[in-house]
Amino acid sequence: MAQLVLRRSVPTYYDLWGNMWSLLIIETWRISVAVCLSFSGLLYRFVVGFLGFLLAGGGHGWTSAIFSGLGIFILPIFGVAMAYLNKPSGPILLAIVTIAALVVNGLLILAAWSEGFYYLQKLWDAPGGLAAWLVWLGLWLSWQVGVLAAWGVALWYRRSS
């Protein structure tokens, strides 16, 4: 005896309501991740900028590190880009972050080049100066490694979709 199977072609009210809630939960999670990453980026950049300010020593130290404080405008955008990497806006924001990071890096390198090695050597010779510079350098380089890793994740998302 053959069974007759009826299939619904029109979604029911429950199907629409369930899909709406799941999308709302996903977007709420994505927004909260973006906000958390943005605030942690601000805090991180504040620490790096403050270290750069300390390394400047009131204008008598290595003042090139002051340009690292410009990254405070970049990392909140990076946090949003990370939360939306699998959406079309994520790689666009990541490209903006990458271009801005290259500009800040260029300013930092140009300032360090024009300032000369004398002030950096003077900083390294000061008590705790080399350690402070190494902490600043480690923090400065670590977020750039994060941007490169984000590009890897974005490319992975693009290949998997």
Keywords:
elongated; mainly alpha; single chain; 0% strand; 5 helices
Write a structural description.
This protein is mainly α. It has one domain. The protein is built from five helices and no strands. Helix 1 packs antiparallel against helix 2 (75-83), helix 1 runs antiparallel to helix 5 and helix 2 packs antiparallel against helix 3. The radius of gyration is 24 Å and the shape is elongated. The mean pLDDT is 80.
Q: What distance separates the N and C termini?
A: 43 Å
Question: Strand percentage, roughly?
Answer: under 5%
Number of helices: 5
Major sheet attributes:
none
- SSE succession: HHHHH
Indicate the radius of gyration in whole angstroms.
Answer: 24 Å
Brief rundown of the structure:
With 161 residues, the chain is mostly helical.
Q: What is this structure's SSE topology?
A:
Elements: H1 13-56, H2 75-83, H3 89-115, H4 117-125, H5 129-160
Helix pairs in contact: 1-2, 1-5, 2-3, 3-5
